[in-house]
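Design a sequence for this backbone.
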């Protein structure tokens, strides 16, 4: 009878999270954010990209022509790339963001510095995916039948360096984006009352603010990466060259081409993705607390 407590200890030990798995659980909230963002937001992103490249005069005509020529699935054309990109990079971005917040939360503006760090990681990891995604969105099936075709075209034209075409523009776009988006979200999360609606509002407002302020950076980055397979003169335009080209051709308002679908996308997409992120983050934290409790029982 004296040996009865042993099974309880064994059960507690078996409930513990294996040490190799515990760090991986911290990546799940970012992955959930990525899946929700692509599912809700990619059709808007396709329209935004095509408007930035001046392929259609407006949102309605863009949707109509795409659906008429290739069916509704055309709005998800190139979705494999952002999904792969976001599932790869977003977990690390959010881990860096939350780590900085928790470690330096005593500093004013800690959430913005965390967003800055996340933006650097996002640009370095995401550039190859972005190049392929934009090639798919900017063309029809007659040019690139699928993602593999676009990857091979970039590789055949430029080799491995082609996948980092526009990296400088990507850094210029992603770092301010991460800083403003995650920094604003972090501040709103801190001050708003806890709850689903607060998370949705914080995500939507942070995204809308970011796209409104930083849309010109995304427009120039998109045009640079769309030129990856174009003539040498187009590729050599670079950041300032593309900026001048857009302003000369379309005026300053051309830098905000595609803002409407981006704004329409920002509220539902960011609200849904932040809800998914916080829900999974809460589940992971709860699992971590249970694991810690099991460890204490064993020791």
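Sequence:
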């Amino acid at each position: 009878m004296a040996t009865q407590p042993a099974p309880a200890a064994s059960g507690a030990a078996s409930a513990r999270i294996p040490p190799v798995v515990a760090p991986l659980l911290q990546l799940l909230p970012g992955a959930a954010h990525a899946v929700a963002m692509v599912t809700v937001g990619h059709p808007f992103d396709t329209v935004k990209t095509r408007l930035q490249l001046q392929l259609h005069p407006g949102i309605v005509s863009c949707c109509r022509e795409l659906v008429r020529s290739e069916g509704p699935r055309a709005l998800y054309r190139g979705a494999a790339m952002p999904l792969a990109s976001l599932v790869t990079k977003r977990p690390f971005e959010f881990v860096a963001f939350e780590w900085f917040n928790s470690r330096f939360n005593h500093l004013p503006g800690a959430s913005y510095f965390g967003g800055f760090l996340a933006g650097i990681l996002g640009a370095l990891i995401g550039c190859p995916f972005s190049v392929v995604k934009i090639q798919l969105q900017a063309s029809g099936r007659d040019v690139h039948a699928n993602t593999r075709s676009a990857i091979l075209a970039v590789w055949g034209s430029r080799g491995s360096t082609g996948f980092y075409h526009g990296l400088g523009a990507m850094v210029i776009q992603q770092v301010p984006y991460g800083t403003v988006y995650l920094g604003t979200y972090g501040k709103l999360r801190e001050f708003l009352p806890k709850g689903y609606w607060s998370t949705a509002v914080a995500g939507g407002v942070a995204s809308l603010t970011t796209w409104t302020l930083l849309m010109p950076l995304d427009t120039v980055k998109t045009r640079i990466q769309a030129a990856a397979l174009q003539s040498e003169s187009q590729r050599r335009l670079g950041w300032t060259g593309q900026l001048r080209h857009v302003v000369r051709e379309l005026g300053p308002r051309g830098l905000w081409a595609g803002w409407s679908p981006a704004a329409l996308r920002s509220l539902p997409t960011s609200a849904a993705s932040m809800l998914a992120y916080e829900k999974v983050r809460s589940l992971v934290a709860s699992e971590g607390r249970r694991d810690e409790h099991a460890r204490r029982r064993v020791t």
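Confidence is low (pLDDT under 50) at residues 6-14.
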